[in-house]
Design brief:
Elements lengths: L14 E3 L27 H9 L5 E6 L2 H6 L18 E2 L4 H6 L2 H15 L3 E6 L1 H6 L3 H12 L3 E4 L8 H15 L12 E7 L5 H11 L3 E7 L4 H5 L6 E4 L2 H15 L3 E3 L5 H14 L4 H29 L3 E6 L2 H13 L3 E7 L4 H10 L5 E4 L3 H10 L4 E4 L4 H7 L2 E4 L10 H16 L15
Parallel strand pairs: 2-3, 2-4, 4-5, 6-7, 6-8, 8-9, 10-11, 10-13, 11-12, 13-14
Antiparallel strand pairs: 1-12
Protein name: Nitrogenase iron-molybdenum cofactor biosynthesis protein NifE
Keywords: Nitrogen fixation
Pathway: Cofactor biosynthesis; Fe-Mo cofactor biosynthesis
Length: 455
């Protein structure tokens, strides 16, 4: 006998369904540690720090802990580099039982000296894992000693996995980056310049976005951290504006730079026609004393939309009326995905994130249609329940959500950090629509029939 899927009692406050006529502000529980037994889709603090810092291509990335932590996060992003690829090598101190008993500081020191001598990195990031928090290795002292001996920045990343959520890993990464910012020369930087924060150059997306801004006459000082360079990060304080793409991962750094260097920041999104256009216009408005920048932005948008719109209409004719479920890392990405799906005729029946806050979920409530489920820090059982009950045709998520979609007999779109096809920018919107079309309308589903609303 089939039984309806339930929600764990301790998770009920993190699930909300938008109902007709609701005017009150959404009251959803969020920004808390995952419930025991929930099998959260989140990653740990250490993994959060790794996904932020990993794309810095000319830095050494050394994981201080057991080999499994380095193996799990090896090549963790589809972040490509236009030059050095040191970031694609995963190094570990490979702590064993004796190191846990007697401490791993000596092993860390010797590893750093050997690796820096061999690879000549511009800087080194040292990641603390859970075991380091337990045995108490003083990695700050080791980093300080090695930095003095080698002459390069050796930066501790306090990312012990048990310390909180993935979001705390983002903060640990930002703290380390902030130690680099301000240590380089700002000579020659244009007053019409920006840093792009929270863009990780998945499948070359940072290059697409950088080209738009440069065509507008704006200098991009650094991208943090996609196709990142240590020297660019060191002079990032010379830019006059920070634009934050992934707000969950990089808002901490933007706020720190605003407080220390007086650099304002704005949140942007490069997914979908509407948000991509707005991101260019908003930056152009910031430099209001240069009307030619706005003129260039309008020209870029006009040309790109003229090419893209007819193609999207072809997809829309087929996809109109289809339903999508979204579960991604940051809520800000969800906003853009809802708009992008609507532009090709699809509705959203589930919208969730791993790291959203109350303001994010309130905005989701305002954007979503009646009956949409809004969920914080979900798990596989819940996602399956909502996908089935709402009869979704597509699940948009990351690598851990892919098996859920395929087991339920519906299409899937990877919008996380392992992908190899760019989904940002105007060309990215075309790639996204094409991927959604190919997945939802694939004939393979006749051989993997959709499961019913209960299991």
């Amino acid at each position: 006998m089939k039984e309806e899927i339930g929600i764990l009692e301790g998770r009920q406050g993190q699930v909300f369904e938008k109902k007709s006529g609701e005017a009150e502000q959404l009251d959803i529980s969020c920004e808390k540690t995952s419930l025991s037994g929930s099998v959260s889709q989140r990653a740990c603090v250490f993994c959060g720090s790794r996904v932020v810092l990993y794309p810095v291509a000319d830095a050494l990335h050394l994981v201080h802990g057991p080999i499994g932590c380095a193996a799990y996060t090896w090549d963790i992003r589809g972040a490509v580099s236009s030059g050095p690829e040191l970031h694609r090598l995963s190094f570990s101190t490979d702590l064993g039982e004796m190191d846990v008993i007697y401490g791993g500081e000596k092993k860390l020191y010797l590893s750093l000296i050997e690796l820096i001598d061999k690879y000549k990195p511009k800087a080194a990031f040292i990641y603390s894992t859970c075991i380091i928090g337990l045995i108490g290795d003083d990695i700050d002292a080791v980093c300080k000693k090695v930095s003095k001996e080698t002459g390069i920045p050796v930066l501790p990343v306090h990312s012990e996995g048990f310390k909180g959520t993935k979001k705390d890993g983002y903060k640990a990464a930002c703290t380390s980056l902030m130690k680099l910012v301000g240590t380089g020369s700002i000579e020659g930087i244009s007053p019409y310049s920006i840093n792009i924060l929270g863009e990780f150059n998945l499948a070359g997306e940072a290059w697409i976005i950088r080209e738009y801004y440069e065509k507008m006459g704006i200098e991009v000082v650094s991208t943090m951290t996609g196709d990142g360079r240590v020297d660019a990060v060191r002079r990032a304080h010379g830019a006059t504006l920070n634009v934050v793409q992934c707000s969950g991962s990089m808002t901490t750094l933007a706020k720190d730079m605003e407080e220390k260097y007086g650099i304002p920041y704005m949140r942007v999104s490069y997914f979908g026609i509407e948000d991509m256009s707005k991101s260019l216009y908003d930056v152009a408005k910031h430099f209001s004393d240069r009307p030619d920048i706005m003129d260039a932005a309008k020209e870029i948008v006009s040309k790109e939309v003229a090419k893209l719109y007819p193609e999207l209409q072809k997809f829309k004719k087929v996809l109109a009326g289809k339903k999508a479920a979204i579960y991604v890392g940051g809520a800000f990405k969800t906003f853009s995905l809802i708009k992008a799906l609507r532009s090709i005729g699809m509705s959203v029946v589930l919208a969730g994130s791993q790291t959203g806050n109350k303001d994010d979920y309130e905005r989701l409530r305002e954007m979503c249609d009646e009956g949409t489920i809004i969920v914080d820090d979900s798990n596989p059982v819940e996602l399956s329940k909502f996908v089935l009950e709402k009869e979704a045709d597509l699940l948009i998520g990351g690598v851990k959500e892919r098996p859920i979609a395929y087991k339920l007999g519906i299409g899937f779109c990877d919008h996380n950090h392992e992908r190899k096809i760019p989904l940002a920018g105007f060309i990215g919107m075309y790639n996204f629509a094409k991927e959604v079309y190919q997945s939802v309308m694939s004939p393979v589903w006749q051989f993997a029939p959709r499961k019913g609303g209960k299991i």
